[in-house]
C-alpha cells in the first residue's frame, strides 16, 4: 500500500495518559501535515512539518501537544496528559511539494481516533 | 482559523438526481481540491484544479475553478447511494503551503 499510513486507527486513553499517533507519508513525500477533526465538523490544521523541521505549528495547542518528523521513521503527534477534550480524529496528510499546483496535492491517511475516558 | 464558506451544509436528494455544491473564499486561490470523506475514513482526493476557468471531470463528478479564483463548484450527476458522504473543498494560494478547508457538504441519497 503506497498511501499514507496511520496507526493506531483507534486509541483509548485515560485522562492524564500520553497518546502517540504515528504517520508514514506516501513514498517520496517529505511534507507532512496533521489535522484534527471533531464529530460533524471540518478539518482543522494543526502542524506542518518537513523532514526534521517544524515549519508551522500555529494550529497546535502550545501545551501538551508536540510533533516531530525525524530523518528516519514516521511523523509522530504526541499528546501528553490527555483530557477528554482531546477526543477526536487526527488525520495525517502528505504532499510531494508542500505548495500549490501539480504535485502539491494533499493525500490523507485513514486517521487515528482518540478516545479519552 | 480561516475557513472557506461551503454550501449547502447538507443535502438530501433522491437517487438519480444531480447535485451541486460550491465553495467561496475572500482570498484568491491557485489550486482547489475536492475531497470526499465517508464515515470512519479519511478524506479521499476526488479532483484537483489548477487554473481559473478550468473544468475537470472524474466519472460522474465535475468540478470547476471559478473565473474570479475565489470560488469553486462540484457537480455530481445521476447520484447513487454510494455517493453518500461529506464533501470538502480546499484551497491554497501560490507560494504558501497551508490548504484552507471548507466546512463540508453532507450528502445523503435516498434510494
Structural class by helix and strand composition of chain B: mainly beta
Biggest β-sheet of chain A, characterized?
7 strands, mixed
Helix content of chain B: under 10%
Tertiary shape of chain B = globular
C-alpha termini separation of chain B: 38 Å
What overall form of chain A do the CA principal axes indicate?
Answer: globular
Helix content of chain A: under 10%
Strand content of chain B: over 45%
Low-confidence stretches of chain A: none
User: Largest protein interface?
Assistant: A-B, 29 and 29 residues
**Overall pLDDT level of chain B:** 92
What's the total helix number of chain A?
Answer: 0
Radius of gyration of chain B: 13 Å
Write the layout of secondary structure elements.
The complex is a heterodimer of chains A (about 120) and B (about 110).
Chain A: E1 5-7, E2 10-13, E3 19-24, E4 31-37, E5 43-50, E6 53-56, E7 65-68, E8 75-79, E9 88-95, E10 107-108, E11 112-116
Parallel strand pairs in A: 2-11
Antiparallel strand pairs in A: 1-3, 3-8, 4-5, 4-9, 5-6, 7-8, 9-10, 9-11
Chain B: E1 5-7, E2 10-14, E3 19-24, E4 31-37, E5 44-49, E6 55-58, E7 61-65, E8 71-76, E9 85-92, E10 100-101, E11 105-110
Parallel strand pairs in B: 2-11
Antiparallel strand pairs in B: 1-3, 3-8, 4-5, 4-9, 6-7, 7-8, 9-10, 9-11
Amino acid at each position: 500500500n503506497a498511501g499514507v499510513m496511520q496507526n493506531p486507527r483507534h486509541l483509548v486513553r485515560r485522562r492524564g495518559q500520553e497518546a502517540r499517533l504515528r504517520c508514514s507519508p506516501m513514498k517520496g513525500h517529505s511534507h507532512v501535515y496533521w489535522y484534527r477533526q471533531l464529530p460533524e465538523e471540518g478539518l482543522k490544521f494543526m502542524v506542518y512539518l518537513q523532514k526534521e523541521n517544524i515549519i508551522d505549528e500555529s494550529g497546535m495547542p502550545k501545551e501538551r501537544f508536540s510533533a516531530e518528523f525525524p530523518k528516519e521513521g514516521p511523523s509522530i503527534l504526541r499528546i501528553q496528559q490527555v483530557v477528554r477534550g482531546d477526543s477526536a480524529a487526527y488525520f495525517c496528510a502528505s504532499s510531494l511539494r508542500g505548495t500549490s499546483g501539480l504535485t502539491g496535492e494533499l493525500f490523507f491517511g485513514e486517521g487515528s481516533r482518540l478516545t479519552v475516558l | 482559523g480561516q475557513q472557506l464558506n461551503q454550501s449547502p451544509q447538507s443535502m438530501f436528494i433522491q437517487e438519480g438526481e444531480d447535485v451541486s455544491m460550491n465553495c467561496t473564499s475572500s482570498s484568491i486561490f491557485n489550486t482547489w481540491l475536492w475531497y470526499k470523506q465517508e464515515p470512519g475514513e479519511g478524506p479521499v482526493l476526488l479532483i484537483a484544479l489548477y487554473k481559473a476557468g478550468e473544468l475537470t471531470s472524474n466519472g460522474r463528478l465535475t468540478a470547476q475553478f471559478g473565473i474570479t479564483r475565489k470560488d469553486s463548484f462540484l457537480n455530481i450527476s445521476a447520484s447513487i447511494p454510494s455517493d453518500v458522504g461529506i464533501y470538502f473543498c480546499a484551497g491554497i494560494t501560490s507560494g504558501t503551503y497551508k490548504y484552507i478547508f471548507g466546512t463540508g457538504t453532507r450528502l445523503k441519497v435516498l434510494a
